[in-house]
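Can't attach files on this board, so I'm pasting raw text. These are the components:
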Amino acid sequence: MRFGVVTFPGSNCDDDAVHAVVDALGAECVRLWHKDHDLKRAEVVILPGGFSYGDYLRPGAIARFSPIMREVVEHAKRGYPVLGVCNGFQILCEAGVLPGALLRNARLKFVCRNVTLRVENEATLFTSQYERGQLLRIPIAHGDGRFTIDADGLERLRDRDQVVFRYVNADGTTGDGANPNGAQDNIAGIVNEAGNVLGMMPHPERAVDPLLGSADGLPLFQSLLARVGA
Amino acid sequence: MTQYRVAVHIVPRRGVLDPQGQAVTDALHALGFAAVGDVRVGRHIVIRMNADAPQAAEQAARDMCDRLLANPVTEDYEIARIAPIHAEARA
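---
Top answer:
Structure tokens for the assembled complex are below.
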């Protein structure tokens, strides 16, 4: 099974994503340029973190019109897995593939640190190797990560179990201090209704080796291998 | 075809937390502008374009806002001004 990692002008986590897939997971990976018109037989597409187009206008607003996005959106519509991390999440929201939007952090500061996430749905393509309620240490690094959606949209996400990760304290509670960016309902990651597209602000690809502080992100990639590669 | 200058205002929708606007509100209060209720900080975009009529320029600007310039989930926009540019001012 083949992964594809898209590079936009301004992407800066593409190498980390390739490293996670190739070196940590041991899977095949093809690099895709944003001007490409095909996905080169990739089954899982990763939109990596970074600052595509300098975050001009809004993060992801211009990248969503990159030529390859037409193929990525088609790929998602056909039910294949798409993972958007950080800027990739922002691009998927701008493209309307995922609901909601990611706004400037509530405290207006760029936040770069490890956070604790709680796995809220272990029944997705991306989380089968986790357990519900499991706590993960995964880094975040963003200035625009405040997930925002209207009340109806939030209710839909909750009702359909589309919230996959929430920011929590080290003890797993959602009280004061757990939320690094003011995201609504502590939401750190969501899937689309069909469950084949995951967007998340934290960086699982930066947490695939205990040497670098955490390997809690690796099971996410292993889940894809287990479910899609089978 | 006339050339128009179209100005667009884009602001965070009411009900969406605007921490920048909040910070500016607090600063204005600190400066003694007690009458200030709230402030919302957004973007002002100026577009120079050709169109047959002002209505056409406005419609085009609305399409631009719907498709790219504003985020329909969190922002509202208004076309603030549409003015023809006279030939001598074009250079």
